[in-house]
Amino acid sequence: MTAPHFVRAPAHLIAEAIGPQGEHLYLGGDEAARDLALLRELGIQAVVNCAVNLDINYVQAPYLLPEAERLAGGHGAIRSYKLGLVDGPGNPAAMLLAGYYLLQGAFCQQLPDKPSYPCRERGHVLLHCRAGRSRSVALAALYLHHQQPEHYPSLQAAIDHIRQRRELRPEEWFETPKPSLIQAIEQADRMLRVLADQGL
């Protein structure tokens, strides 16, 4: 059973001032991730793609040109990070843990002042999957719960908040996020608590 498709904005502001310098977290789908004008308008400087079945080419001026059996490569128009999650069963919980740290890196990574790192400007972060309804919701909930526990004292509180901000309707909730992804972030949540107890 698939929920009815509803038209919603391509990206939604999920959490304000969650980054170390007051950066915001946005959540969306491929429609937002592929729209450079929208990303610029929202002040987004980094994109975290958590969909294994979606690749986006941000390279505008390749310096590694295509040749026999090799693809072009170069600097992207925006900083991009990739975590390949399946939208359903099949993800080891450790991947959600890795996703938590990947998202943290998108906010906190310090890039050197060198020509080979052209996208150094700090800004907001877009977390996305294909539709912005399941994988990205699960990862965002884990992140919000651990970064701002005073606002999101449980994973469910974070999921409820994201559903409201992302305009996910009650008839979609059975798959936003998928139950297997909720189970995975519950396990990742326990892993994060063990690491915190060890001072890590």
Can you offer a commentary on this structure?
The protein has a single domain (11-57, 75-197), classed as Protein-Tyrosine Phosphatase, Chain A (Alpha-Beta Complex), CATH 3.90.190.10. It contains six helices and five strands, in the order ββααββαβααα. The protein has 200 residues and is of the alpha/beta class. It starts with 10 loop residues before the first strand and ends with a helix. Helix 3 crosses helix 4, helix 4 (135-147) packs across helix 5 (155-165) and helix 4 runs parallel beside helix 6 (179-197). Strands 1-2-5-3-4 form a five-stranded mixed beta sheet.
Architecture blueprint of SSEs:
Elements: E1 11-15, E2 25-28, H1 30-33, H2 36-42, E3 44-51, E4 79-85, H3 93-108, E5 124-128, H4 135-147, H5 155-165, H6 179-197
Parallel strand pairs: 2-5, 3-4, 3-5
Antiparallel strand pairs: 1-2
Helix pairs in contact: 3-4, 3-6, 4-5, 4-6
Keywords: Hydrolase, Protein phosphatase
Domain Tyrosine specific protein phosphatases: 125-166
Organism: Pseudaeromonas paramecii
Individual helix count: 6
Largest sheet: 5 strands, mixed
Give me the Rg, rounded: 17 Å
Q: In whole angstroms, how far apart are the ends? A: 42 Å
| CATH homologous superfamily designation | Protein tyrosine phosphatase superfamily
- Give the oligomeric state of the chains in this entry, treating copies of one chain as homo and distinct chains as hetero: single chain
For the record, the count of structural domains works out to 1
Describe the global form.
globular
Q: Output the helix-strand order.
A: EEHHEEHEHHH
Strand ordering within the main sheet:
1-2-5-3-4
Strand element count: 5
Note poorly predicted spans: none
Helix content: 25-40%
Mean pLDDT: 94
Any guess at the CATH architecture?
Alpha-Beta Complex
User: What name does the CATH topology carry?
Assistant: Protein-Tyrosine Phosphatase, Chain A
CATH class: Alpha Beta
